Amino acid sequence: MKNENNDTINEDPGTKPISICDDNNILPANLLNPLDKTYEKPEKLQNRIKLIETIKEKIDNEKLYICLDIEAFERNHDFLTEFGWCLFKKNGEIIKKKHAIVEEYISYHNGRYVPDNKNNYNFGKSEVVKLKDIYKELKNDFDQVNYLVGHGINNDIRFLKKIKVDVSKFKKMNGNSNKIDDYGIIETMDLFSGFFLTKPVGLEKSLRRLEIPYKSLHNAGNDAYYTMQVFLEIIKRFDFFKEPKYEQVMNYKPPKKMKSNNNRNNKANNSPANNNNNTNFISSNNSSVSDSNQSSNESLSDSSTNNNSNSNHQNNGNNKTHNKNNRSNNANTNNNNNENGSGNDTKIVAKRNSQRRKFHRN
Q1: In DSSP terms, which residues pair with 84 in a beta bridge?
Q2: How far apart are CA 46 and CA 37, in angstroms?
Q3: CA 147 to centroid of chain Cα atoms
Q4: Helix crossing, 42-57 with 220-237: angle to 10°?
Q5: Rounded to the nearest 10 degrees, what angle do helices 188-196 and 42-57 cross at?
Q6: Largest CA distance in the chain
Q7: How many alpha carbons lie under 13 Å from residue 350 in its C-beta half-sphere?
Q8: 156 near 85, Cβ under 8 Å?
Q9: How far apart are alpha carbons 357 and 352 in whole angstroms?
Q10: Which residue among 39, 126, 184, 358 is least crowded, i.e. fewest CB within 10 A of its CB?
């Protein structure tokens, strides 16, 4: 049986109708299976949805963004071979496009692990520039913009630090704060994840999913331009109220973590009432133990008394025998002493007689 809200109810007239679903924990189908390859935690998606909404609704339209991509030699990432960047506004106005090939490493080409598209820039003319001049131009453009955008932006920031470009004023935007940063770092992988409610993916998969035509990826200028297009397309398409799936995710409340039974038992055991009970239990046990000890002591004393009387009788008999043996031993000792004494006296007398005979002879 169902009610007007299409919720299943209990038909037992003796009980109240019970809804079998919790509106706060309804999620889109692709978020119900954590084993799914595309699954992402709802808590992370909530922050990413908020990030998209913040960019679209709360950041001023006149703020400038710079979308950046840097390519390095595949066998040694210390050799930065290409820089590409675009300056634009979130309404789609493009201020600048740039693809710079680093003069110092112009002879280094990829091709074994990533495609070699250094010379295949699709959106203008590539320039061969010394690394120090790229640094100066980038620094000047960074001073004009409010937000740094990239797909896998942490790698590009690491490369910027290699050439001493200071990006410390830009702070990573995660969507978990109500504060709008004046200078922020925006990861388009997070925007993709929040828009499609899935795990982040690489640039090529993002372009396919958004149906943005592309060619010659891994050219720094092309990647920067395509990343800008991903950013603009997500911001343009996102509509929180049109798609109920976003509201479902935002209303989701993660289940509270259950405390372990050991902690509960410890708290219960440490409670004052339980301590009193334990004290009473221990005291009652002690009293019963003392009673049993007393009875045991009494029985032990009775048995020990009997044992003592028996042992006394036995000891008296043993003492008598021992005394007899001592007297006989003493007698034997005296006899031996007497024999030894008489033997010694005889020797002395014989010695004196022999001395007298010698004297008379002389």
Answers
A1: 69, 99
A2: 19
A3: 32
A4: 90
A5: 110
A6: 162
A7: 6
A8: no
A9: 9
A10: 358
| Buried b or exposed e, range 51-83, using 16+ CB within 10 angstroms | bbbbbbeebeeeebbbbbbbbbbbeeeeebbbb
The per-residue pLDDT for range 214-254, each reduced to its tens digit, is 999 999 999 999 999 999 999 999 999 998 999 999 999 88
Total length of the chain: 362
How many whole angstroms separate alpha carbon 273 and alpha carbon 266? 13
Of the CA atoms within 13 Å of residue 263, those in its CB half-sphere come to 4
pLDDT above 50 (res 257): yes
The pair of three-digit structure tokens given for residue 239, joined into one six-digit string: 């509509």
Rounded distance, CA 137 to CA 332, Å? Answer: 126
Two tokens at 203? 């640039």
Q: Is the pTM of the predicted complex or chain greater than 0.90?
A: no
CA distances from 36 to 25, 210, 220, 245 (A): 19, 21, 33, 18
Please enumerate in sequence order all residues whose Cβ is within 8 A of that of 158, keeping only pairs 6 or more positions apart, or say none.
none
Residue 184: which of 172, 192, 167 has the closest Cα?
A: 172
Measured distance CA(112)–CA(8) in Å, rounded: 60
Environment class of 146 (CB within 10 Å of its CB; exposed 0-12, middle 13-18, buried 19+) = middle
Rounded Cα–Cα distance for residues 263 and 240 (Å)? 42
* Rounded (5°) CA angle 347-352-353: 100
Contact present, 240 and 49 (Cβ < 8 Å): yes
Contacts of 102 (CB under 8 A, 6+ apart): 80, 81, 82, 83, 129, 130, 131, 134
Q: Is the pLDDT of residue 11 over 50?
A: no
Q: Is the dihedral of CA 9, 10, 16, 19 positive or negative?
A: negative
